[in-house]
Sequence to fold (464 residues):
Amino acid sequence: MTWLHDHLGEVLELTKQHIYLAGVPLVIGLVLALPLGWLARRYRFLYPPLIIGTGLLYTIPSLSLFVLLPGIIGGNILEPKNVIIALTIYTLALLVRTVADGLGAVPEDVTQAATAMGFSRVRRFFSVELPLAVPVISAGLRVAAVSNVSIVSVAAVIGVSQLGMLFLDGYQRFFYDPIIVGLVACVLLALAFDLVIVGITRLLTPWVRARQGA
Amino acid sequence: MFNSIWMWLSDPANWQGEDGVPQRTVEHLQYFAETMVVAAVIAIPLGLYIGHTGRGKLFIVNVVGAFRAIPTLGLLFVVTLLLAPRLKGDNAFLIPSLIVLIILAVPPILSGAYAGVGEVDPAARDAARGMGMTGWEVLRKVEVPCALPLIFSGLRSAALQVIATATIAATVSLGGLGRLLIDGLAVRDYGKVASGALLVALRALAVDLLFALGQRYAVSPGLSGRFRNTPAADDDSRSTVIDPAVHEAA
Fold:
């Protein structure tokens, strides 16, 4: 693996870009999915159109979406923002349902107890319903994170710089080293995203551990 | 964009010959059908077996999860580099891509079949046994019909995955609609790129719709709750498949 040794700087730079391209859509997707999921839960008639609508967007293959987006929103195919927007759409499609289902799984008596204690609707949402939905939302986020890391590499085909470039480089030169390094780096990155989400979830849901310890 | 797509699609030259839209569509469908059949023949019996016997559950969960993390593009390139020099003629480009497509289609179908059978109400299974059914009869008459919704959602994710991956497999010289997109990129013809992308997206939507319809007809109304007018029936949670594995590809 002298190749890795000689190209460590380059690989790290590509990894940074990969983290950015896969991570930003996760955050934006989550921030957008929370209100949409809440709406789908609060107004039941919104649930089917929201879920089916995002589901249809999800069926569009990523390479298609990457190259069609600049035509819709303007700009150049090579711009990273196309990748970020496409992945945000996929993340949103996964998370809207997860958030709606997570909020739906909050036991009725808990919300009633909160109301009886004088919680306003907003306060009840943020301090009771949302925290209780965290484990479900986190499960959806983990799936989205792992798939985002994988999809980002496809963007190498349209020339957006990230770890997928190593695949292209290796393939064009009939040289395995960069491809193997890229594959391992992608899998490790997916694992790292997963661990971060699991860690944050643990911090946000101390009662789960307390229950397990008892 | 709409203008350039329209310009490209309305040019009769793009509808003729080897590189024409009809020919590319047929190729794409062909890869799709071949891959799905092979993958289903492998994955459905295996998934039913695992679901029925409960053996190897952990193995399945781990394998399916691990595949999700492997980037398709890298897998495609590695398999092509490994196999292409050992194959002759057109097969050198065709076989490696088809193998990757099958590899990617198996896990979702497998987990659908396994989870479908695994989640069958134990009471239904016990009742069937109590009626004197053999293990095989239980599988055929009770477990498979009950598992159909999940088997279908596994097939739908696999289908989207295959369409998406077949598109990027054009980078390793596979034919099909992905060719238009990839060749268009190479010559900077945005009309061609966008037309290819649009056709692929439409193809994906059409296939998903077909599977949704097939599912509607195949699944017993007693299971899907279609004949009842209860809230549970409105909550047709499988009307669209959301499986992240789909976009690992393209």
